[in-house]
Write a structure and sequence with these properties.
By secondary structure, the chain is mainly α. It has one domain. It contains eleven helices and two strands; from the N terminus they run H-H-H-H-H-H-H-H-E-E-H-H-H. Strands 1-2 form a two-stranded antiparallel ribbon. The chain is globular.
Amino acid sequence: MATLTWQSKLVLLLVMPFAATSMLLDSIVWFGEPQPVAIWTLGLSLLLGLVTWKVRAATPAAAATGFVITACLMFSTISSPYSPWHTALVPTLAVALLAFAATRVGRHKKERLGTAEARRGRSASQVAANLGLAALVAIGPVDSWLLDARWLPLHLTGGQMPQFPLVLAIAALAEAAADTVSSEIGQVMGGKPRMITTLRAAEPGTDGAISLAGTFAGTVAAGVVAGLGTWALRGNGNFFAVSCAGGVFGLLFDSLLGATLEKWGWLNNDAVNFLSTASAAGFAVVVLAFWRW
């Protein structure tokens, strides 16, 4: 899979210029306002990045990538009255905590299987692949285009802020948590997994292999992130249902890509993760388009 490292670099190139530019511009704007929005956003995002680095959940480059994406997401989800806890910080923090906990469940068994995450933590491309799509749909030209989509319903809250782009972002974050938790828990619980395409038994850690225990754990993780995202962004039941459904769909789509394009050597894991978060957001779009409210 070494020949596919260009895909990891492409994911970084797709995400980081937009996220960094958005963070910089928003910082300039908010530093000129009386509310300490920029201080809270940059401070808490930096703190999260430093903690993930210190506990060896991420490399220094990955921690910096997480700082930029988290700050970008926080700036993109500000509402009135302002509170840093009513931004995307809460669901992003949930993704980080769930991933950290799941990777440490049964670590000795994973090391024997050769599937344990590197002790130095996640790389920058892994962070961008899991969190980057959420940032992209919440900022810039994509956000403007989504808000102009008159054919899509926007009444996902009491109307305090436009919610359509945000429900897509939470769906993507829910998928990121679901994928990591499902994969990590499935390797140590639930017996032999089966390929999603053929239902044949496979070794734990095989791309595209799923288990009932892993899928259930991933679904719960998606629900936790969607629930916290709904609370943080002041959403309603529809917001939760759409974002959670998107996260679960993306989880299954990730396994399908793993059993096909990744197994065939066409995609690496970073590309699969990025496309899976995109599928979660895409599924949410479909649900919103055809849901009869």
